[in-house]
Design goal:
By secondary structure, the chain is of the alpha/beta class. The chain has helices at residues 46-49, 78-92, 104-115, 134-141, 147-154, 156-168, 175-186, 190-202, 229-238, 254-257, 259-272; strands at 3-7, 10-17, 28-32, 54-58, 97-102, 120-126, 216-221, 242-247. It has an eight-stranded mixed sheet with strand order 1-2-4-3-5-6-7-8, sandwiched between helices. The radius of gyration is 18 Å and the shape is globular. It starts with a strand and ends in a 9-residue tail after the last helix.
Length: 281
């Protein structure tokens, strides 16, 4: 779990999972978590992937083990998150990567692929919206004016429990997973969670789509509530090389509900485009 300082008072953390053969230098796969989560939320994917690729799981600033002195009004922008990701790749020695981001992590991947195309081999989007539609902003407000108002009035744990039950995970299918998700999410600083949610609410990846040359895979629920059919159509129209695999659920967290199916699709996709010499990683 390497941690390094990017500026005085800010330390970034990433997890490195590598069970590849030591004589075979394999490419990196970045698993970037979404809003309010951390690298720990990828735990179900690591056993499937780390035998084949070197897995980097960064914590976004202020979340997980990436901690420091942060200005809540100024330090949570897309530009800063992209700079952090660039710093993580440099620190890990990853000149090119297969990038996989879930939800907000996928928006970050779209922006990174548009700005730094030379660093991206492939891009995979897991339940990634192009932007948060107004109907979802209204649902996440839980009758308290706005999403962030609800988070502040109810507290993070009560808010995430209520919204996860209806959109992210079925509470009765794996009750232990549901409770773990809520508990783990609620470990984050409430102030950081609100600041990140403000960023998510205003994020829009549509401008990046025409600038992306990398092949893109989408792993999406069949009846996504956060990722609607209209959102998927924007990706089909805006990306030059895009394909979708649908998972049979209406819930958002397909990577936790279908880890084997998701990783099978990701491995097949990455291998298809691994045409560069393995030493050029």
């Amino acid at each position: 779990m390497p941690t390094f300082e990017t500026r005085p008072g800010l330390h970034l953390n990433y997890e490195l999972d590598d069970f590849t053969d030591p004589w075979d230098v394999r490419p990196f796969v970045v698993l970037q978590h979404g809003n309010g989560r951390s690298s720990r939320f990828w735990y179900r994917w690591v056993p499937y992937l780390a035998r084949h690729y070197r897995i980097l799981r960064p914590d976004m600033r202020g979340l997980g083990k990436s901690q420091g002195t942060l200005d809540l009004e100024r330090d949570f922008t897309l530009d800063y998150l992209l700079a952090d990701l660039h710093a993580v790749l440099d620190h890990a020695g990853a000149s090119t990567v297969h990038f996989c981001g879930e939800s907000m992590g996928g928006i970050l991947g779209l922006a990174f692929a548009a700005r730094y195309p030379e660093r991206i081999r492939t891009l995979t989007l897991v339940s990634t919206p192009v932007f948060i539609e107004q109907r979802m902003k209204d649902r996440y407000s839980l009758g308290h004016g706005s999403r962030t108002d609800a988070m502040e009035k109810l507290g993070i744990r009560e808010w995430v429990s209520a919204t996860t039950r209806t959109t992210r995970l079925p509470a009765d299918q794996e009750p232990d997973l549901f409770e773990w998700y809520v508990d783990e999410f609620a470990k984050g600083s409430p102030e950081v969670q609100v600041a990140m949610s403000k960023l998510v609410n205003r994020a829009n990846a549509q401008e990046f789509l025409p600038k992306i040359d990398s092949p893109v895979l989408g792993l999406y629920p069949t009846g996504g509530q956060i990722t609607s059919g209209e959102q998927e159509q924007l990706l089909r129209e805006g990306l030059s090389n895009f394909e979708v695999v649908h998972l049979p659920t209406g819930y958002h967290m397909v990577q936790l509900l279908f880890p084997e199916a998701c990783t099978d699709a990701l491995l097949e996709f990455c291998r298809r485009y691994d045409r560069e010499p393995m030493t050029e990683c």
